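for the recovery benchmark. tokens below, seq after
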């Protein structure tokens, strides 16, 4: 299993079965994946951990908070790790609920080691994609903060589809001044085209009143 450069990913196992926790920990370590195991959702939540890359492998049926209920609460708790659910008593409605809630996979015990490794690979890839999007969005926000008030006005109107002449009329400026501001916006936002600038505006939630 290949891994990308950057912080090492961790597979978090939450299952009340100690034998299965040990078996899964050994499986993940055999492919050089860091792993941390917990006996319950409450133990996972009460244990400090870094916000590094990873995924959650949850048992559906556990004392206290079940895997499905825990999955439903994750976003509200600010935890965005992809989830793989496993159960010894799976049924179609349960698996549908899990997948609709965003689970990467729903495995019925006993499962093949390779099926679990494939699910973890997919989960870590999903987590990497989310983190990349978040990093890109933060970079856009930082770049947007460097724009002057006038440049933000031009950004807004340009991405709304107005021509330089129209923007000049709205802002009571010369067309050449608008072109200069537009150039500054493109440079500061590192946009290579108008289409890319429009996508940035959409990602930032910038739209005319």
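predicted aa per position
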């Amino acid at each position: 299993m290949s891994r990308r450069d950057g912080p090492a990913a961790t597979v978090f196992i939450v299952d009340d079965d100690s034998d299965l926790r040990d078996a899964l920990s050994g499986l993940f370590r055999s492919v050089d994946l860091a792993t941390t195991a917990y006996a319950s959702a409450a133990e996972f939540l009460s244990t400090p951990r870094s916000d590094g890359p990873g995924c959650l492998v949850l048992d559906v049926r556990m004392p206290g908070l079940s895997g499905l209920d825990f999955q439903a609460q994750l976003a509200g708790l600010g935890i965005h790790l992809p989830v793989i659910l496993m159960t010894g008593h799976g049924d179609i409605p349960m698996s549908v609920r899990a997948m609709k809630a965003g689970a990467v996979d729903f495995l019925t015990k006993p499962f093949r080691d390779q099926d679990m490794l494939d699910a973890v690979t997919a989960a870590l890839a999903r987590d990497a994609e989310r983190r990349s999007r978040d990093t890109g969005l933060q970079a856009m926000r930082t770049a947007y903060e460097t724009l002057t008030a006038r440049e933000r006005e031009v950004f807004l109107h340009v991405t709304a589809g107005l021509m330089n002449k129209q923007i000049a009329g709205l802002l009571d400026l010369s067309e050449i001044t608008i072109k200069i501001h537009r150039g500054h916006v493109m440079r500061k936002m590192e946009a290579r085209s108008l289409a890319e600038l429009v996508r940035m505006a959409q990602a930032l939630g910038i739209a005319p009143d």
